[in-house]
Predict the 3D structure of the following.
Amino acid sequence: MRMDFRLSEDWDEDFADMATVEETDLRYYVAQGDVVLGTDQTDLSADWGWIPLVDFALALREIADALSESEGSETFEFTESEATLQFDRVGDKVVITSSYRPGEVTVPFSDFRKQVDEFARRLDKELLQRHPELGLNPDYQRLKLSRSH
Amino acid sequence: MRAWQFQKVPFVFPALILFFGAGCMIPIAYGQGVTLNVRQQVVLTRWALRHIQQRHWPDSPAQGAGKFAVGITEESLREMINEAVANGRPRENTHGRPGEIYEYDFGRPIGTTINGSPASRLRVVISTRGQVVTAFPF
């Protein structure tokens, strides 16, 4: 399974001081881009350019946490549409489907967990490289994108 | 005397509305500490308006986002948001996002979904400060 992101180029023009951006802005307006998600056979990517990637990383981490405890289903709601991603834990696997593309992706839960954590770590690293002042932002720090699991 | 009585009406009438209207205002709290008043209008900042226009206006090129129908204006958007917040179904925002979500079905098309189908519902996200974060048809 591939889980990756592509940061859009123009979202940061609206934020003069990344050190003071608040949590709601971080989860709705900052670090927008595409989500790459799928396998060689199935593509569930959301390549709309506006996905708030910090929010996506945090939400998927919460989903992985919830699914780590027991079988069940979790739904990710995109911030600007009715589109959803569905995550179903079945035994030691996670089945991922979407409301906007056909097909499903089945992946061992351990791989899913690892990919989710890697996604957040890579995003954190890239954002801090682009905007070191985020390191001074208390709301961004509190979200702990690069937490160790 | 007659003139005085007529001049008094414009003052007394709004005062009565304020007096009796205040009794109808019922504070309601929904999760995460946001307290909204069912009669209170939420705040639509210039920033949020611009965000909604960029993503959800009829001529917006943004893909994968619900669109308002042609003819939407800033004023009609404000009216729809206020109606949705006053009458819609509230729920906590999902997966740790701050704020609340209000969803309301207008019973008529107000725009289109991401696949171009008619949309009659409005989803409004309200921050913990009572400000609109985003709003879109679905």
